[in-house]
Each structure stands twice: as structure tokens, then as C-alpha cells.
Amino acid sequence: MRVLDALLAMQRQSWEQGVAAQAVLDLGRTDLARLMAESAVARQTPDGRLGGPDDNAVNGAACGEAVVRAGFADAARRQLNWLLHDAPRAADGTLFHVLSSPSIWADTVYMVVPFLALSGELDEAVRQVNGHRRILCRDGVYSAIWPDRPARWGGGNGWVVAGIARAVRLAPALRSTELPGHAREVLDACLEFRRADGLFHDVLDDPTTFRETNAAQMFAYAALTGVADGWLPSPYEAVGDRCSPRPSAKSTRTAWSAGPAARPPSTGPARRPRLRPSTCWPPLSFLPAALRKPYGADGPATRPAAGRRRRRSRPARPDRSPAGTARGDRTGGRRSSPPRP
After folding, report:
1. pLDDT over 90, % of the chain
2. One-character DSSP codes across 15-42
């Protein structure tokens, strides 16, 4: 719960909102996922990008899964239309990651491919993976950004394999495509750079870069999901366990990281939730039709004004807080509340 509290307390960009919403969906917290979807819809740009305006062309699609599951079909349809028709892309159709420059990022695979799969656009999901693979991948390992950052960034490779794993889980028909095999290829190639402690350097093949946990977490997610969903053999479960970082020794009591993340020496077997097979998820065959179904005006649900009870007005209570004390401290009376908007 501390980790969840810390997550919800963070200010988020559109991609962080989407990934956080996916995490709470996986935890079964559909109530929180709906609230996060409502926020993404409320901040949707006129061109269809969920989660708010910025220089990014693709990150809003990460919010798409939560938005679809919350029933905001109009908003999901607008996001999908942006990806399919309006977002900037290379001549071969591979999406550019940002609006301001023609650059292709490994991150894009995670941001858009699961949403395309969920929306029934399986051919486009495969096309985007293949386009990024053709431009960024050499010997099974992805560069971070074309053309400006050829370094083999661990996090970028994590985004690729985790994005494919999530897409296959959302659309099991993708198991018959080349995507699972490619995810295994990338995972195997990256594991060659794993440190003795199970983690990776920020740049996989540069041991002078710092040790980090993000790549290991995404490799673990892909490995464990692949085993659970049947497109990776069972020995990869041990790979996922080995790549699953334990809580940092430098984490604070509020679950915020207080310095470089590190995996402390093992004091016993780590406990982790076991992933369930994808058959436990709701059937997804209805989703493309749901995206086309007119739901009327889209947006966060509100109770009709006529159904609300009017709250009786009360006389303002004097502020009893002593000078220099923050409003809301206990001062012998009831905790004062912030003014209602």
C-alpha cells in the first residue's frame, strides 16, 4: 500500500498516467483506474491525445486501456484516430515519438502497441513493432532513439518486451504473429548483459553507467507474463524471479526512493504475486465494437443536478488555529476543512 500511495501522490505526464492506470488495473483496483481514466479524458487535447498537451505524439495512447475499460468510447476512438491517421510518422508508417522532430524511440512500442491491440488494430500493432525493429534493433538489442541516441539503453529494451507482452495478453490472437518470438529474442539478448545481482546498467553494454532497476522490472514483467500466457517456456519463470528487484535498502518509510536503487543481499525468497493466465481477463472480442458504438457525450460521469440533495448552509466557524500553525492542525476543536469550491 505504501508503494501505491507514493504512486498516486506523484505528479504525472500522460505516459506516467497511463502506466500507473495499467498497474492499478492489474491490481484489480478498477475504482482507481476509472478515476485515472476520467482525468486523462478531462485533459484530452482537441486532436485526440489523452492525458494532456505536450510535445509528445504517442504517450497519450498509454492511457487508452484504462479509458476503454472505463467506457469512455468517444475518447478512446479519438485517441485511436490520432494514432492511425494524424500522428506524425516516417515514410514507412513508423510513428515518430515527439511532435517537434522526426525521431523514433524504443519507448513508443509500449506506449502504442498494447492500445492498438486492445482496439482490434492487430495489423497496425505488428506494423509498428516491425518498423521500430527495422530502425532500432541490431543483434536483438534496441538503440534508444534514432537518429540521436544510438546507445543500447536498458529501459528502452524493457519498454519493447513489456509492450509486446502486454499487447499479446490483451489480444491473444497476436500469439500467432512474430511478436512473441521477437520479444523472446530481445529478452535473451539483453540477459547477456545482466549483472551478478540480477540488475542491469543504464546502458546495457557500458559498465561505467549506473546500475538501475527499471530494465530489470520490465524484463521480469515480460518473462513472467510470457510464461503465464503460454508463449514462453516455463524456465523463463526463474528468469523473471531473478530479474524482480526487491525493495531498495534506501527506500523511505513512504516508499519514495532515497538515492540510487539497489538490490540488497537476499535474506530469503522474495514473495511476488503470481500472474494469472490471460484467460482470466474479460473477453476482449467486444472491444472493437465498443469503440465504434456511439455512447453519446463522453466524459467523467456525474450525478444529475436534480438528483443532488442541497446541503444546508452553516455559519462560518472562526479559525481557532494559533498564529503560525498550518490551517487544519488539531487545536482542541474539530479539524478545519478547506473551503469548498
Report:
1. 64
2. HHHHHHHHHHHHTT-HHHHHHHHHHHHH
